[in-house]
Amino acid sequence: MIRSRKELTKAVLIVSPSIAAITVFVYGFILWSLRTSVSAWEGIRPNYTFVGLRNYARLFRSSRFQIDLWNTAYFTVFFIAVCIVFGFLLAYLINKQIRGEGFFRTVYMFPMALSFIVTGVLWRWVLNPTAGVNVLLAGLGLPSSWGWYTDTTRIGGFHLALISIIAAASWQFIGYTMAIYLAGLRSIPEQLLESARMDGANEFTIIRRIILPMLRPITLSAMIVLGHISLKIFDLVMAMTGRGPAFATDFPGVFMFETTFRGNRYGEGAAISTVMLLMVAVVIVPYLAYTFRKEHS
Amino acid sequence: MRKRHLILCMVIAVLMIMPAAVFAGGRAERPAANELEIFSWWTAGGEAEGLQALIDIYNERYPEVNVINATVAGGAGAQAKAVLASRMQGGNPPDSFQVHAGQGIIATWVVEDFMEPVTFILEDNGWMDDYPADVIDIISYQGEIYSIPVNIHRSNVMWYNRSLFADNGLEPPASMAEFFQVAEQLRARGITPLAVGGTDGWEQTHLLESVLLAELGAEAYRGLWTGATAWNGTRAKAALESFLRVMEYTNPDRAALTNIDAAQYVAEGRAAMTVMGDWVHGYYLSIGHTPNEEYGWVPFPGTAGNFLMLSDTFGLPKDVPNPQNVERWLTLIASREGQDAFNPIKGSIPARTDADRSLYDAYLLSAMDDFGRDTIVPSVAHGAAASESWVTRINDVVNILVNNRNVDQAANEFQSLAQQYAR
User: Fold this and answer.
1) Domain A63-263 is in which class?
2) Residue B294 — φ and ψ, nearest 5°?
3) What is the sign of the dihedral through the CA atoms of B383, B386, B392 and B398?
4) Which of A1, A118, A166, A278 is the most exposed place for a label (fewest CB within 10 A)?
5) ipTM of this complex prediction, to 2 decimal places
6) B413: nearest CA in chain A?
């Protein structure tokens, strides 16, 4: 693709500022965080005295962090599952060439245009136990004493309050999942589906045997994108519930913010962000390696 | 065409680098213009108006100084504290900043050598005796005063809905035993006895400090913060049990409410009582209620004679360009004139004991009377008694305690925190 030395120089010149910026502002600060996470820094003045893995040990012993990890695991699984299932269903419906497709597409995509802060404030009111959807339920004569995000019930490590966060986050990202599935569906050649129908396959078999296997790469990238959002979740929770009763809606991001900027415990805060980075890396790095290999084969 | 693309890419690259320039520029020295920058989280309502009243007096006295009112909104000061920390770390301190009295300034700023002592402001003006000795004690570190309290708030106040109490033939409780009796009767009548918030993480700690004070008394309560009282001792554990018992009479939707929402429950008659600082008085006034008509107040049961104090203070950071401007500011807020200009508007009482009583309303006068004669003890939920590091971890333990109700576990965690932080 690069044809001459001159073009190569030009290409390097063009990308070099962003490489420099990324080196400093992404990787430089990652290294700085790593260093802080093994330091004794507590208080305003930086203190880089090496303390080994003490901050990490404290972290994994603290009950709050253990709850956070469980919350992250449950939230990630349910958030991805809900988005993928409903995203696919919506895309499938819209792809049926229904009338007013553009309208529905816009409506489903619309929450994507909001920031997580807006979504958080919105759902905080929708699910407010005394003023929100409970009033509506009561009006319909349905059970209406749900605690939503104030519920402290925990079933097998799963806080019921998390359902509210999952609902809000999924509401925002189902539209996105639908959009990429829709693009995938449009790229499946119609002849293929047609010939399957001629062979007598019913709609369900077509979905299971043709559509879903062909959409597998899309499902994978949707899982990666949604997964890294859920592992880093912060703004939605901050705006909606904060840490929650008994940390029912607490996540490592919230814990990191409170530890670092409210408690001035910079060493421990950096340790939390390092753990978060590792969690995301576990998801992203294999994916990058996979796509890299595929591009080169 | 190619060339144009190249130029476009370059321009974008330069734009992307811009934040770096800002980052580097943030560390640059400020020119020593004749300015006074006051940093606070007083952005709205009476707080902002009170601050403006102080600034107006300052402008009148020193018209040559350009006063910059730098405020950061949000999170009851949490956002402002984060901004402040990065400015101080970057060597660009505001000339004077709002900070909670006690460990809020001492542990965070004084111990780490960011502040100049300001004892001379009170001494040179002969004002040492105009402040209660307990207050001087709370704002001092190693014999020097490091910040000037502009106001005083009381934490151990129980606000109650007067018509709910009258309709049910109840008197506001004066002791813990009475509290439980009253709460039981209210609950039997289907009324939530005590409204508590929970969204910001400190509301339950606020209730806990009053219960600790009621059960332990002032001396042992102070000892919790100096290491003299064991958190896992019999009395402290009994106090924690008592706190859990109080929590049984609270609203289940705590996590959805701020402290003001909880006060609103009482105003609307959805709950009978709430325990909160006296900014609640300002809130009730703002919704058109009158003290001693719609709402009444008593010290938290069992804490009469004690005044759980918190206070907003200002200090003098090291290396500010115009220390003289800051000294004039501190002198103004320490003076009777300054405190009487600020507090009636903000809805708090002055830290001085010689205020002009004609300026204050019924609640503030009663608080001033108590402040003058009570034992003054520092609040922990608002950073007077313990450092920010300690308080945030106490909040965490409380959040677990009220849900798993395991007093032994909480007492041991409190105790190990005390061993780490008490001084």
Assistant:
1) mainly alpha
2) -75, -40
3) negative
4) A1
5) 0.85
6) A62
